Fold these 4 entries.
Entry 1:
Amino acid sequence: MKHLLTYDMMESIRVTNQWLGSTARAMCGYPQLGLIPNPMIKLTAAWGEVMERSFERMIAKPDWNIHSIPGADGRDHLVDIECVMPRAFGDLIRFKVQGRAPTGRKVLLVAPMSGHYATLLRSTVVSLLPDCDVYITDWHNARDIPVSEGKFDIEDYTLYLVDFLREMGPDTHVIAVCQPAPLALAATAYLAEEDPDAQPRTLTLIGGPIDPDAAATDVTDFGNRITMGTLERHVVQRVGFKYMGAGRMVYPGLQQLSSFMAMNAEKHAKAFSNQILAVAKGEASDHDKHNRFYDEYLAVMDMTAEFYLSTVERIFKGLEIAQNRFTVAGKQVDLGKITTVAVKTVEGGKDDISAPGQCVAALRLCTGLPESKKANYLEPNAGHYGIFAGKSWRTNIRPLVLNFIDANCDVPKTPVSAVTTAAE
């Protein structure tokens, strides 16, 4: 089958590198080699340890590792992860805090489907849990979804959000991070016409490409330069026989990861060199800063080919959201129909993925929304990751988002707590 061998070859390269790392670590770990005064033995063992761990993590879905949070009553409350609405391509899950009354802030975090799992927002979830009842979209790895489940493109993604919002009911507050921002905006407009009672109270869009042409980045330049035929020939592969989704056309996670790494190759090379030296010196640990970051960063997932291609073609090239021409199931979605949902945009001054100007364009498109229900915030020194999971999010953006939610919510709320060290 066309493209299947290429997919399997990438997996073979990954397995080979994992094996090389494991072999180097085992061979240089013999106690007798300690008698040889050669630092290369320790360095080789350290290289093997870092190599094995890195390539092993690439196909493993990280755990949420959210077990409990401190409560206002001075007790730790256990956190259960519940699947509220299971679907073929992604589930709606809830982080249920045991022994705690509803906070009055029911939040749906819309996670990106851009190569990483929803666990990329783990720190965002942890920071919100003390003050909110948190739900999140947990997208599935396309390699594990049988072909019989059919396609999944940006229209299907939008309809999933519509179904999730209907399931959660009224008084929901949506926070969409990065890639899903334009589709969350479209889902809200869709509900404004089709099911107004299911609309969220507020919609917070963080670093999303609402109008990619508003400010150029490497991502938008790539989208404008590349042709759809080139993408289909060189990016899309067919899942190999090892997985349940055998035969499904996907944009492989391993291929995505190579693109991520290439964008900051020098930075990543330095980080891994420093980690190898730290392991050789005995200064590294299983959950040190390097491993915490790269265990998540290297864990990538395949996305369906039709979702990736339709995102490039319709969001970046066709500018359907930016020009208010987006259609879902043959029906045009009019962003001007949003009249009651308060909308806030958040951007980072140093965001090199979704530059300032791209996200705030949403406010211009919501022509039916009063100015009193619009808000925007620019964090001057924050990069892309920082505006939803870094220091800028914890210290500046999170309180502003919660205040925005409270200002547009009639349900009684618990007082906002400070972000604890554990949440960081």
Note: Residues 419-424 have pLDDT under 50 and may be disordered.
Entry 2:
Amino acid sequence: MAELEDSLAPTPVHSGASETDYPIFVVVGTGPVGVRCAQKLLELNQDAQVVIFGAEAESPYNRVKLSQYLSEQLSLSDIDNPIIGERNGRLAEFIDRPILAIDRANKTVTDATGKIQPYSKLVLATGSNPTIPRIPGVELENVHPFRSLRNTENLIRLREQNRHICVVGAGALGLEAAAALKTQKNRVTLQSRTRLLSGMLNEEAEDYLKSALGALGIELKIGDALTAIKGDDSVRQLQFASGETLETDAVVLCTGIHPETDLARQCGLKTDRGIVVSEWLQTSDPDIYAVGECAEFAQKVYQFVRPGYEQVESCSKHICREGNPDLSAEPYRGSLTDIQLKIAHIPCALIGELDRGKNSSGYADTSATDGSRLFTYRNRFKGLYRQLLVKDNYIVGAVHIGSWDEASDLRKAVARSESIAPQALQQFERDGYLWQKKSPSVLRNSRTATWSASATMSARVNSAQPFPRASAS
């Protein structure tokens, strides 16, 4: 996506954007959530000028698909993420132009070139940065993070040039990276001080996932913390807390992310782990919003793109209601945190409410002290593992490792809190399917038949807010 000329942006004024006869909405961040926000603002307000700034040199791309690009399942054009829809000259995009300062008093932002851009409303979609462990040797050559398109291009070269790559971190990104980096010509070791997916699986489910990774040729070193990276100029050896060592010639760091809050802190916005926001995604300044991985709602930071998209819905409609009081807007109440893994040809997912704590061995707790019940189907020969968490005859969570052609229907059932008949659960434990021949006849009436998806989430997520309830008008 080409950068537009400076002349297409509104003429900068130091007294704020209020001197114009149309609203100016500025979005900082060209990741998937920032792009979605700009698109929604253009759609919902036909008079507004929308200006979006990106810090990266590349045109907007879908960061969620980087693992698939790394594994060559997608091409570069497949991850392109332009702002689509009718613009009518109302959109200005600036690529490779990070915002360095926010002047809240004058309602302007200043970019890296020194240019000043006024705003009526400002949306921060600054995302997050990779967390780099503070261990000796992390600055050596051939030690790479995996977060951006530029990182991904580096890893593609790394995969072809190195015999043994160690991926540090066994979260969703680490699992995907290990699978994408493995070829017939190299060794890949997946290392983590904790269990796979931070112990969100029970022991049996993790065993199935380990077997799937082993079938891909990925070696595992789990439960031993990395303490040092050794080498002269380039990495040669890893040292662990147990005293063991591992010879390797490349390291990929998938050791978590942290919200990008520097810009917000510098201008005096309230921050904690992220930029603290209300149910309308407003920060402590009502004219500034934050969405996506940089935002902290009800003391929670979401590290997935879907919650960011849901935040954009509430945020953009709240912004645009000022000029259109008939626009329906619902406050944000929190999101489910589904994890869908793209591990080569092995589909895996964790869906819905699965945070039940951990047992003494560090695995997900499978005890049923809250009245919920677990239903499990397993087929070791086919490498299939499927588990449902059911409470009061409603599916509230699920795990599957291996293909499941009902997965899409299952996600909808969890999101809509659909009740499930006992005979369907019996069929599931016997055959691994809930809907025989994809028929919904075994479902009882949905308790959410007249609710919207966002209202459903309101009923299921802690609605405690960092600010008093705001007006939608």
Note: The first strand starts at residue 24 and ends at 28.
Entry 3:
Amino acid sequence: MRTKTLKKNKINVVTLGCSKNVYDSEVLMGQLKASGKEVVHEEEGNIVVINTCGFINNAKEESVNTILEFLQKKEEGEVDKVFVTGCLSERYKPDLQKEIPDVDQYFGTTELPNLLKALGADYRHELIGERLTTTPKNYAYLKIAEGCDRPCSFCAIPLMRGKHKSTPIEDLVIEAEKLAAQGVKELILIAQDLTYYGLDLYKKRNLADLLNELIKVEGIEWIRLHYAFPTGFPLDVLDVMRDNSKICNYIDIPLQHISDPILKSMRRGTTMEKTNKLLTQFRELVPNMAIRTTLIVGYPGETQQDFEILKQWVKDQRFERLGCFTYSHEENTHAYNLEDDVPEEEKQGRANEIMEIQSQISWELNQEKIGKEFKIVIDRKEGNYFVGRTEYDSPDVDNEVLVDATKTYLKTGEFTTVKITDASDFDLYGEVIAS
């Protein structure tokens, strides 16, 4: 005779790191739900799965701190089990098992079936595109490839994610249709490298063909491109972008640096001349495109002269969107063999300088938008404002458009047209002129 009621497990999935991890957590949650498990995202649950990031030092610290935080809860009896998956676990499993042995089990990035088994669920192949999305209902990430074949000296992603592997077009279309049926209106295409898409499956760069299929999906209004690599960029993508209003005039293309000696040491396979030529082609073929890029400062051997070249280039290019990271010295990468010779304080100072320049550029570009009309999508309500975005802005990283909620009622996920009335460095203020 049982004297104790069996407690029903609730699995809490905690996601750290980038949008690729968000996607992986959503797939995991979809599989768990299909097995009849109760699953939540970053809420209370007695079983915890932490999807970690291992990209740079800050991300690794956050991952380790999160693991320790949940182990403390386990010790206090608030949590029964703690499982760790994702990039940190893929990269450092033996070290983690030794240093943090209280975790119930560690899993790498390719061990979803094993993780599900440990959680008492079965991996189901037939669940193409079945995910529990964690983003606002109007947009979702669509991961079109896994891994990366690029040899960039500073990057540990191939160590954690393996070789580039494209997802077939037909599978992605099925997934997009399922998302559209759930009310998703914007697809954000992600991969370690969109530029390479299709080379392994179709023996050619096939991103344009994929876009031509995705624009046929009913209900999808915006398709956005994230993480394109500059070398070998397929220019036919720009034709599709220009000719079809569903493809946002937006591209995220991490360029990392522009000084030739640094680009060469980074093993980027390009030069300042080639990069500038590509950016000119972008702007000529899609005149009103917003280009987002990210840069790394403080890379080994980066001289003051290299940095001055980078600063001048940022001023000349006037990128619509730009982020800047300090170099992180990652073991087992090619650059780890170089001396990490730029002091941390200098790295931070350089990053701040770049962002000050960009802040001024962003303010100037935003001032030019005052008085103009833009189609926006509403992501959420915050205080007295509805918060939306134009097609030139990606969630969480770019500008937002604030609409006074005391004057107008808008629904999350709906598109509307606004006239910009005011602007700051990274925010626009708009009034609705048509719904």
Note: DSSP finds 13 helices and 18 strands in the chain.
Entry 4:
Amino acid sequence: MRAPAIRIEAIDLFEREMTFLHPFRFGDVTVRSAPQAFVRVVISVDGAGRASGATAEMMMPRWFDRRPERSPAETVDDLRRSLVSARDAYLAAEGADTAFGHRVRFETTAVPTPGTAELVTSYGPSVIDKAILDALFRAFGTNARDGITGNLAGLDARLTPDLDEVGIHAVLSGRAPPAAVAVRWTVGMVDDLDALDHSLAESGIRHLKIKLGGDPEADIERLAAIGRRLGDRAIDGVTLDANEQYRPDPLARFVEALQSRDDLGFARRRFLYLEQPFPRDLTLATPLGSVAEAVPVIIDESDGRFDAFPRAVGLGYRGVSSKSCKGLYKALLNGARARRLSAEAGQPGRFFVAGEDLTCQPGLAVQQDTALAALLGIAHVERNGHHYVDGFGPAPAAEADAMAAAHPDLYANGGEGWRLAVRGGVLPTASLLTAPGFASGAEPDFSAMRAI
């Protein structure tokens, strides 16, 4: 089916404060609460009439912009402004275009505010794109699987000149999403290790993501302590996330110790990759050197533009993270890049897209990002953000009931309200991929939110 032209009639922005049950530290900030953004759009589609769509995404302080002069509150305000600016730009665009075409218009015409971090600039359009896609799929009564594999959004090579459109369409149409995505449990810098073993046993999770602090000796000792705590527990995979805390020489010392210390066997035997070791302003200007030969390394916070992944590959990186807040179109196009690069290297899977997003909360955010991971063929994804919030948080009970009714395989209620149900260490994808719209199935209660 040819991608239809759409006109964007309305974009409404909302937010809801999410209070955490446990503090979480990433990089140089400890977070105890953060607002979740919600977007509702109305579009008119050639040949299919009008439809509405929705999405949700956390506005995490000091992740999108870690400059020390920006306070946590200021960085959240910057994300609000990004949403408002993107809304205004999308609504101001004249005429119709494909869903992806509207993002191309934004990328080629919007003038970034001087001094604004790349991830902040891309946040607004990336979130709005998800809501537009939900509305588009609803207009045709289709689901995430068929809508993506059929390229209803109209992805092409306008923003990725290193790709050709034949290759993009071939990758999208050849997607065979898995029936379940394994959950990778993040062990934060201030997490209680006494509770780690209980959490893994209760959920059956067999993949870990361990945060690093940037001090090679301290990080190695912490890894050893985690290994002792886990004992003989079966772990299928371990990833390490430096959150921009390392510099080249300390990183080389850390990698050397990781490969040589006898008491790090649990991490070394199941090690998969290292995520974003260097600060973002250093990453795309610094070759990995010998580290690239020793371990696979991926970018995350440096993935602010559509050309970031191929630039990183030229410096020795092997992968890039997928996060809905950075753009679902970019993630899908990066998937095509990874396939092409691996084929050129004659090593299937050498280059890859990884699933990394701790912030996803029950409801639209976790549903849509997990569906995206499945459509990218990602086997395991960082997914224990629900551990930090009480169920659906302050959402009305009726909203949680509606989401759970639309996705009965994803949620469970043990008497304390609906919770994300991780059984056997995985999240099923059946309802996410077959529910009408982009893994939505139900709308949140916008009347119970504050307008942005």
Note: The two ends are 36 Å apart (CA to CA).
